[in-house]
Records
---
Amino acid sequence: MIKVIVVGNGMVGYKFCEKFIAKSGQEKYQITVFGEEPRRAYDRVHLSEYFGGKTADDLSLSTSEWYVENNITLNTSELVTDINREEKTIHTHLEKTHKYDYLVLATGSSAFVPPIDGVEKEGVFVYRTIEDLDAIMAYAKKIKQKGATEAAVLGGGLLGLEAAKAVRDLGLNPHVVEFAPRLMPRQLDKGASDMLQSKIEELNIGIHLNKATQYIDGKESITGMMFADDELLKVDMLVISAGIKPRDELARVSGLEVGLRGGVVVNNQMQTSDPSIFAIGEVALYNQNIYGLVAPGYEMADVAAEQILNGSESKTMRETIDMSTQLKLIGVEVASFGDPFIENDEVTAIIYENKLSGIYKRINVTKDSKTLLGGILVGDSSDYNSLFQIYNNGMALPKNPEDLILGSRDGSESSAVGVMDLPDTAVICSCENVTKGAICCSILDETCSNLSDVVKLTKATSGCGGCKPMVSDLVKAAQKSMGKEVKDVICEHFQHTRQELFDLVKINKYENFYDVLDHHGKGDGCEICKPVIASIFSSIYNDTANKHLTTQDTNDRFLANIQRNGTYSVVPRVAGGEITAEKLIVIGEVAKQFDLYTKITGAQRVDLFGAHLDDLPKIWKVLIDNGFESGHAYGKSLRAVKSCVGNAWCRYGMDDSAGFAIELENRYKGIRSPHKLKGGVSACIRECAEARGKDFGLIAVEGGWNLYICGNGGANPKHAVLLAEQIDKETVIKYMDRFLMYYIRTAGPLIRTSTWLEKLDGGLDYLKEVIIEDSLGICETLETEMQTLVNTFECEWKQVLEKPRLLKRFSHFVNSDEKDDNIAFVPLRDQKMPKAWS
């Protein structure tokens, strides 16, 4: 048997073994793996999830049986200390010697610790392994018992921000300290970094930029960090995540060639200066670079395996390694691709910045608008896959390149790349180097029949997971091309789409979830299908959430949004944002009586936060007695119709926008839909109500109103498109009734109007035919159905107060009237906020 020894049992070392045993000819080889950590290879990319409750086994990339089944000998807790290249042997700290024919160095990297005076003090940690995390968790628990609240993270890069999230999850207040003038300086420009910083600071994480740390303060344990500008940051724990350095010490003592700044020098075959020894992953210096991402490491593993099995004529490493990446940092989506910083006379940067939504997008294109060179996305990275494919495959850009990040703004088809437009050579999963051709062919030749089969065969999506939406779309497209029916069933219990279930409920007049389940489903149902069918009942019969309690989400069950400390918010309806002084006083009195935090929202309402569950009926009794109704802030329904003051006050106003907004909000209040709905009415083209960023919006113009539909704000903002122009109020309401009812009938669960329109066959032109031209002959029915919902509206909270049996659910404990004494608050400016959980 030919002996292959792998030194290092991290993600890349494991991937080498996985790649090797999948290739033909591997039967002649015996693989032995040495890892100095006490456990099998685990997922370092998602290491922060260890703080969220995942165990080491959850993060493990394999089972112990996997090594046995594949004839791989795994030695954990054993450090290789020397290589005898002449005799082709390795020596371990257990005084054992093993012979090899080929040796693969996958020793990875260790945390770089800057030479700062005092880093050896107690309370200073690195963020690299599970053992590091265990030590951090134990120390955090210890110092919190002594009243400590502050901790710092040294490093504002990818790993540093992950570490900051970990510190926050441990119940400490994190401070990120970065030497550079911005966060993530290698991936983001100033605009993107500023946006990321503002999003992170909203989470009460301190950011300290341009800070050079002179020394760690404290005697035996850390008490603070002294910066070069003589500022002292008082902290009781420090986590260092300031970069990595290659673990090349074994190569050095063995006489292998290493770089001036570290790393084992390799060629494009992953061979070191000794042809029998290969280096892969973060220890390998390829083209004078160390690559700290998973995808290049996995490609190196594949190249090394191919070279050992088939020699120099086989696969080699690409000359240029793409460092594009997509991730979520502390809940904020961040992505960069290509050259994100390129600036010269031949390049134009197109930038979209929305500080209100916390979104920054930049693409760099050539002056002739023909080539995409790179880009940055912060706050919303949903366009990453299509942008990366355009860049990576040199695909043609649309006539207006800005459409790539702004979306189509005139009702025409989206400028995004369709998955089937990509060449077969397009790499969809960069972690596993899986192409579009490999995915589609596995379906077309019937090797695979569904997404899970494709994942099992190709390993696509098994790395970072960012490619999963595109892989899923490719599988569906390939299935459709074969004439197979592809349905977006709502869950495993119903092999039907939401639209099919809507029709089944309506035709059969079902009024109970279990009737639907018994006749058209299987099993007991789940948290996905139960709220969907409850919503369908509401959309057909106008049933309130009170009628189907056991199938509702938590928010609908208690008619309020649950907040992060277990309290609830109260949002009375303020139609069109218009409110009398008397009603404002009532809201103020309620907030004062029940000690609630108050916030005026972008939807022109007042949110009241911090209500205990058992106080909700008391609060709503006061509000309803004073003429308020439920604002449905918790439901998949109409939230609000925003308006400007209109021609009643504004000298530019062309119509009564406030009055029309109130009329529309009162008409559509309470209707249940697949996703929440928002509206806006502006009295002129100055657009103070932001009507073109809503599910429906109206702008007053000469000759009537322009009606826009299918826009939204949020993480993935979309401009609304023009459905009809210069129409009167009666026509507006007629078209609105038809549009909303058709959307309610046909959209999938939790699908926004913008996404629904994008996926609608025929797009806007088809929708105009249905809504305006009545091409399906259903407009009268749609209008009648909407009018029925309008006529049967009931305030859900008024129902609760009038029926004592419905009040029973508003109690923290089933056997006691006491409040939950675990709920605690801390001061926030002149109000309060939830105390962070330990």
---
Amino acid sequence: MRVALAQINATVGDLAGNARRIADAARRAHAQGASLVIAPELALTGYPPEDLLLRPAFMQACAQTLAALAEDLRDCEGLHLLVGHPHQFGERGDIRTKSVTVQQRYNAASLLAGGRVQASYCKRELPNYQVFDERRYFVSGRDAGLGPLVFDCAGRRFGVVICEDAWFDEPARLAREAGAQVLCVLNASPFHLGKAEERQARMAERARDVGLPLLFAHLVGGQDEVVFDGASFALDAAGEVAARAATFAEDLLLVDIDADGLPRGPVAEAPGLEAQAWGALVTGVRDYLGKNGFPGAIIGLSGGIDSALVLAVAVDALGADKVRAVMMPSPYTADISWIDARDMAARLGVRYDEIDIAPMFDAFRTALSPQFAGLAEDTTEENLQARIRGTLLMALSNKTGAIVLTTGNKSEMATGYCTLYGDMAGGFAVIKDVAKTLVYRLANWRNDQGAEVIPPRIITRPPSAELRPDQTDQDSLPPYEVLDAILARYMEEDQSVEQIVAAGFERADVERVTRLIKINEYKRRQSPVGIRITHRAFGRDWRYPITSKFRA
């Protein structure tokens, strides 16, 4: 028999559009001989729908769309579709008499065939860590006393589990005990670097544990700060990869299961770390702008490495015709910054403009001189330059409708090496979760993919904000190799100051970096949403208080 894994790019809340994508994939699969199509977790709503799930009208629309999808595919004789969606049991009573039956919501998967919903399964293991918040919205199928779902299709028996279920023993074991011969895993597993390898290893472990082949259908695409990498796959009962879909692209993976239960299909190449990161950034930009209806992007191009990387990502995501670069030199801008910015814009073929901010900077200083009388120049004047640039970029955004892509990296966001209402001004923070050392790796990787789009001098020159004479980042920060290593240990691995010092780092550097992380929480709370590519990003998985006296 043939099974199709429908790796779709769903949009949260676009119930009709998501249903069309699922139906189109199902019809294409049916035309190619598939008896079963597996769509991802919550494919009908997109993931995560968050507080939309709390709206009765949304849940009602989900139920109606699911029924309509089943009816739409009635003419596909012999086709079974397994699709993820939110499900709700219970009736509303009269709150005035307190006779209210609480409606329970479930993260569910339903089997559609013959024009109707044949059966449903409710997720048992609800993740509540990192970016996940499922216990806010859903009840566990286990807590509700709901059992496994095993169904027959083309002479085989398929058991159903949903995402987190497959990371635990019980759900798959129950499916096998109920007679499953093949395990179907519906997924919406947000990407971070190394997640694909971890995911595949854990699913291989699950397949070996239950002695069953495993079919893993995964979402692809961007949703606000999270991205989904696709790479759906099939494993044999020994946990070996038998088929794999494309990464960061919609795909319909056709898997043939032979008489002995062995799955076989095409195996797409698994990308390396830099390729994964680049794919995540491109996907995040493309879908954030596309799904929210922005006509294009504007980037403040400085001649430095961060804005160069963001420009390259934006062009790969959107095309050069939808990207505009604006150079805004100040009295401290080096000539090579002008030259390199013009060079890069020309290499990528984007619209390029220059707006000299020196007259505006002088006007601000003149207006403020009575207030600043007797006070020495300091970061105030530096920040004025960044805020002038932010104002200009936002004015262009307002006039054209294009969104400003900010260019601050994770190392800067961690330590506050950024200016509120200045270089932080914008709508989407592309490299917010990309440490500075990775910025350089990605720039070199992108230049190795064919045409050299980033001028080499941008990569090799010492980084500088160019807000005062002869300024470099290392005037204010430890070397990025040291800073990023401390950041990873403290922020991503939750190590204490003492543990980091014991690992061989200078105490002064550790205390300096961790102090900067703590005192700049107020800035990060006001920063635009940005793409998550690590397992701990500043955003959904970082929820620290602004006011706090804890210092370890």
---
Amino acid sequence: MTDLAPKYDPNEVEKGRYQEWLDEDLFKPSGDKKAHPYSIVIPPPNVTGKLHLGHAWDTAIQDTLIRFKRMQGYDTLYLPGMDHAGIATQAKVEAKLRKQGKDRHQMGREAFVKQVWEWKDEYANIIKGQWAKMGLSLDYSRERFTLDKGLSKAVKKVFVQLYNEGLIYRGEYIINWDPELQTALSDIEVIHKDDKGAFYHIKYPFADGSGYVEIATTRPETMFGDTAVAVAPGDERYKDIVGKELILPLVGRHIPIIEDQHVDPEFGTGLVKITPAHDPNDFQVGNRHNLERINVMNDNGTMNEEAGKYAGMDRFEARKALVEDLEKEDYLIKVEPIVHSVGHSERSGVQVEPRLSKQWFVKMRPLAEQVLKNQKTDGKVNFVPERFEQTLNHWMEDVHDWVISRQLWWGHRIPAWYNKKTGETYVGEEAPKDIENWQQDPDVLDTWFSSALWPFSTLGWPDTDSPDFKRYFPTNTLVTGYDIIFFWVSRMIFQGLHFTQKRPFNDVVLHGLMRDEQGRKMSKSLGNGVDPMDVVDKYGADALRWFLLNGTAPGQDTRYDPKKLAAAWNFINKIWNASRFVIMNLPADAKPAHMPDVSKFDLADSWIFDRLNHTVGEVTRLFDEYKFGEAGRELYNFIWNDFCDWYIEISKVALNGDDEELKTRKQENLIWILDQILRLMHPIMPFVTEKLWLSMPHEGKSIMIAKYPEVHAEFENKQADSDMAFLIEIIKAVRNIRMEVNAPMSSQIDIMIQLDDEANKHILDENADYVENFLHPKKLEVSSNIEAPKLAKTAVIPGAQVFVPLTELVNVDEELAKMEKEEKRLEAEVERAKKKLSNQGFVAHAPEAVVNKEKEKQADYESQLAGVRDRIKELKESN
């Protein structure tokens, strides 16, 4: 046993503890083949910077589950790793290089990638330091990175297999293009938000000189790529002009008027310009009518030679200049300001440009159907909360082909080569043998392509004989935010099913978003983010973990609240002080906690062990159901209320008494309950529970591998629970009355308890020591036949009424004078209110709410006056 400071100091408690766990190899799987395996692979954070509170929330839940299952005897694996985060990391490094006056194109691919690896190493070390401060029991011997050799092997195998199965293809399609990062984006990497824009109404003249048609567009700069104007089939307004030709303003190129089902005749003028290289719908129209595809922009968002004199101008500068020229040449009819939803790059924030591009795609329909089919079986992925399964299903039902190529240098290079002479394509896990005749595709794969394989690639797949893959796959639980279902969860599910024929995890536990105190999403632009490491420095990792697990229900957002962090620290300090009290009251030769002798329990013992049993059963059930907030409430109520406020206080009677045998039994009970509390709390609060457990008599080198508490049938005692509840209610009632009449515990008072059932008298008789200690009665009368005194404070509790006569506690003459003074004051208030409400001018002209407020005041004063008059009557009768 070691001395404990009088106050909980998280910095002292946590200092050096993590390294001790690492030195003892406590984070590795047990290796017990008879034990059930339980595995979680950490959602790999991006090596773009420090972790935020959302990461802390993720990992606090994961580590709690792992520690819980480890203590229950499972063979647990908590596998760490990080994601290379292609676009995000490359953007960070390029920004850093720009500040140094460097450009990746000037540096070359090899030198640039070397710079990114240096960035990765720096931030990976920062992240691992944060994991340590959070106390995550990760098996670092199995740490993975999405660009390591094993995962690269898995990525290549998946790409080649999907290509050979016809599920990966290369083709020209309209994709989302980020002009700043100069790469393709998938649909879910585009954020739509409202922007100010305009409808530009432009004249497109007939080639035969017979007039013009009016075309409205929000992107006039794309008109250089127009190859047709379309109307809806059967639109009576335009049946006579279908097939005629128009002259493209300022360009002079002739384009036809066509019919196509894409056009909505009710929208705008019912005439739509068709730009197949710059709009996804126009691309489909162009395919149906064999229209030319004219790309009018460069990769960086500037106009190309197709734009004539506007070539080289930024797309938005070109728009402004073009509109001015259209007006000068009398082609502009009007400009109609609007606010419309526009796609922006999730990474760079710039407006996305829909653009024709040759890219690699995954054909999603067959993979999505496999997921939808599996979700109807017993082998489906279980979502917590269940409602998010619909989110997955809706996305799978409406899925589009996934563009997986990225025009980046940081990432998995696409395993495709093009013959320099013939142009043929070769796809394979290894490069062609005559490599000098081939050129590898310069693009890399979307980051999500490799992270979609994370649950099985980290365990040794594609080697299906890998011991870890055979032992720990499928993983048991994925914990992540609900905002990543589209990006990651869905992709892991379809890749897992396709390549392993199994779901990648049994359960997906989804938490919400961490918001600031005002309910706003945390963001750099608002400057309202909170560094979890700052929180740990101030309150401790255990307090942060407690806050995160008890903040909300699964799937719900939560607000960061420093007051709740302070409350969490205060709760830990309560546990600390209770532990310190128990340990200080143990004999020097105290033995580790052992099962108590139930036959020697008194009422308080039977009650606390029944409450402990209930808490163990409920917390275990709630952890298994991922209801951490409810589990936290059970733990808090038992520890703070039942154990600290009641059982420890009750035990002091024996600990301060002369009965050595009784004192020993109380000490043994206290250390057993404390031991069980620390084990219950350890998954959530690993640092402080380890410190306290090692400071008391114990067996084993760490609480981390101690057995998790179990329900013991011999502790069940509902009668004791009921009897103790009765005794507690009596004690609370007398305490409240003492406070009301300002009678301190040091003073003795007369107490009368009228029982509803005489059978309950034994509870007070058999616990006379507790009654004496907590009620401190001068005279105690207990019966079912008690005549209530005329002047007394009364409390009604289940099964009894408690009376405390006031004759000796109150100076009747002084109290009577005080009450008569209060009576006069209230009479005046009632009279004032009556006069105000009888004033017809006030009632007629004052707002209804003001009049109603005055009526409420009158009713309240009248009620108070009636109570004072009753009190005066009681006092006079007692005198």
